[in-house]
Specification:
The structure is a single chain. The protein has about 150 residues and is of the alpha/beta class. The chain has a domain of about 90 residues: Rossmann fold. Helices cover about 25% and strands about 35% of the residues. It is elongated and about 60 Å long.
Length: about 150
C-alpha cells in the first residue's frame, strides 16, 4: 500500500487575472427587492477579497460570472399539534462561470438553501431577520462552488 500527498490543482490558473461579476438577476415568482443587489455586492467583495482576481466591468474579462435567483418560496417544514410550527424560506440561485480566456463555459450550477423561521411570524418579518444570514450562506456556497476544488 502506498500513501502520499497529491498537489491540489488550483481553482484559478495563474493566467487568469480578471473577472466580471454580473449583477444577479431575480427571476423568482416571489421577489425580495433587497436580495439580488445585496447578494451581488457581497459576492463581488468576497471574490475580490479572497482571490487574486481583479474585478472589471469589461467584456474582455478572463472569466465572467452570471447568476440568477430562480426560486424564493415559503413552505411548511415543521408541524406541532396539527398546525404549522416552522416555515422554510427556500432560496435557489443558478450560477454560470464563463471561462472566456480558455473558451470554456461551465454548466450552470444550482445552489439551494433553506432558512427556517417560526410560522407565527409574517414573511416580511422573517425576511428582515433572515436576510443577513441568507446573504452570507448563499455567498459562501456560491464562492465555494466556483473556487474550491475538493
Amino acid at each position: 500500500m502506498q500513501y502520499g500527498f497529491h498537489e491540489k490543482v488550483p481553482a484559478i490558473p495563474d493566467s487568469i487575472k480578471t473577472v466580471k461579476i454580473n449583477t444577479i438577476e431575480n427571476h423568482a415568482p416571489i421577489n425580495n427587492p433587497q436580495l439580488a443587489p445585496r447578494l451581488t455586492e457581497r459576492l463581488r467583495q468576497k471574490i475580490v477579497g479572497q482571490t487574486k482576481l481583479s474585478q472589471t466591468a469589461s467584456d474582455n474579462a478572463d472569466w465572467e460570472i452570471t447568476a440568477s435567483i430562480t426560486d424564493y418560496s415559503v413552505s411548511t417544514s415543521g408541524i406541532s399539534d396539527k398546525a404549522a410550527s416552522t416555515n422554510r424560506l427556500t432560496v435557489t440561485v443558478q450560477v454560470t462561470l464563463n471561462r472566456r480566456k480558455q473558451n470554456e463555459q461551465d454548466d450552470p450550477v444550482t445552489i439551494t438553501h433553506g432558512f427556517d423561521f417560526d410560522s407565527r411570524k409574517p414573511l416580511q418579518t422573517a425576511e428582515n431577520e433572515l436576510l443577513d444570514e441568507i446573504i452570507k450562506q448563499m455567498t459562501d456556497e456560491i464562492f465555494n462552488n466556483l473556487f474550491s476544488k475538493w
